[in-house]
Specification:
- By secondary structure, the chain is mostly beta strands.
- The protein has 2 domains: 117 residues, no CATH class; 110 residues, no CATH class.
- 8% of the residues lie in helices and 42% in strands.
- The protein has 1 helix and 21 strands.
- The strands form 2 sheets. Strands 5-6-2-8-10-12-14-20-16-19-18 form an 11-stranded mixed beta sheet, with no helix packed on it. The protein has a 10-stranded mixed beta sheet with strand order 1-4-7-3-9-11-13-15-21-17, with no helix packed on it.
- Strand 18 and strand 19 form a beta hairpin.
- The longest helix has 20 residues.
- 29% of the residues are buried.
């Protein structure tokens, strides 16, 4: 019995230690629908989750910290990209309705972050090629713009979307689709896999320079609306046409799927 109590106490102490060392940083957002979040220079995978709240919540996936040399005791870390005003390696700046958050860690120090974002906020992510990170976004209901060198995975989004990557795949599954603004999805060296709502009304332009295009949309009765340009490029209207939806890959295939 005594042994069990000691073990239980040890486990409780470990759990308490974990909760105390857990770090997160929160930014309050007013009027999320008309606000924009800009993210840049993240060194590890970036996972963004939309939710029905009014705060941006950053959590490092790993709690491992860089060991501070004895000579640095009493001093604060200094970064070339700005000042860490969060305690989790990030610099946050607010300018009106735009919130800019930059990861200050060097690209040699890969660190993953998870971010909870008000679902009606628009998002911009810029990731340079020295940062080896994939971008995952789920459940966002506003505009998303991403420039990356690696893979981009979006699920349960509405757009509008402007996505571009150099050496990664792009996968997008829509929960619904915003109307009025154009969509643009581009990959230089990667596959593009898009699931659209079955009732989408759009002018679709697809181009795969050295790849092929596959779809389960019924194009057989749309010959009057289709225009083949070159070997692997075509334009077509879905459900009578609407906003422009451009999908382009240089070295990869395009998979255009029909959702619900």
């Amino acid at each position: 019995m005594k042994t069990k109590m000691i073990l239980s106490g040890s486990i409780f102490a470990l759990l308490m230690a974990g909760s105390l060392t857990a770090q997160e940083y929160k930014v309050n957002v007013e009027n999320a629908k008309n606000s924009k979040l800009s993210l840049g220079s993240f060194t590890g995978d970036l996972k963004i989750e939309g939710y029905a709240g009014n705060e941006i919540i950053f959590s490092p996936v790993s709690e491992e910290e860089v060991k501070v040399p004895d000579r640095a005791k009493g001093l604060k870390p200094v970064y070339g990209g700005g000042v860490d005003n969060t305690g989790v390696g990030l610099s946050v700046e607010k300018n009106g309705s735009e919130i800019s958050i930059t990861c200050l860690l060097p690209f040699t120090n890969s660190k993953e972050y998870t971010v909870k974002v008000p679902e009606n906020m628009s998002i911009e992510v810029n990731s340079e090629c020295q940062y080896n990170n994939n971008i995952y976004i789920n459940g966002m209901k506003n505009e998303i713009e991403i420039q990356s060198c690696h893979s981009i995975i979006l699920k349960g989004v509405t757009g509008p979307l402007v996505l571009s990557t150099i050496a990664g795949d792009i996968e997008v599954t829509f929960s619904n689709m915003a109307s009025g603004k154009p969509f643009s999805i581009n990959s230089i060296s990667g596959e593009i896999d898009i699931t659209l709502p079955a009732n989408i009304a759009a002018d679709v332009e697809m181009s795969a320079v050295s790849g092929r295009m596959y779809s389960d949309f019924d194009f057989s009765n749309k010959s009057k609306d289709m225009n083949q340009i070159g070997g692997n490029e075509l334009n077509t209207k879905l459900n009578g046409g609407g906003a422009k939806f451009s999908i382009v890959t240089v070295s990869g295939n395009i998979y255009l799927r029909k959702g619900v």
